[in-house]
Write a structure and sequence with these properties.
alpha+beta; 1 helix; 47% strand; Peptidase; PepSY
C-alpha cells in the first residue's frame, strides 16, 4: 500500500492557520463535509479524522503554519 498526500480543492480565500484543535476541526469539516471524530496534534499539523455521510472515515491534515488542508490517499 502506498500512501500519498493530495491537496484538497481550495476556496477562493485561503484559510488562516488554525490556532487550536477546534479551529483545525472546523477547517477539516468544511473541506471534507462530515462529522469530526478525533483531532490529534502533530509537530507541524493537526490530524483530523472525519466521518462522511457515506460511512467512510477520512483522515486529513491541517497545516499549522499555512492552514492548508491535505487528505491522505491510499493507493492499493
Amino acid at each position: 500500500m502506498v500512501v500519498s498526500t493530495a491537496v484538497l480543492a481550495e476556496d477562493k480565500k485561503p484559510s488562516p492557520p488554525p490556532q487550536s484543535k477546534a479551529e483545525a476541526a472546523q477547517q477539516a469539516q468544511q473541506k471534507v463535509n462530515g462529522r469530526v471524530l478525533k483531532v490529534e496534534q502533530k509537530p507541524d499539523a493537526y490530524r483530523v479524522k472525519v466521518l462522511q455521510k457515506s460511512g467512510r472515515v477520512v483522515s486529513v491534515d491541517v497545516d499549522k503554519k499555512s492552514g492548508k488542508v491535505t487528505k491522505e490517499k491510499k493507493d492499493e
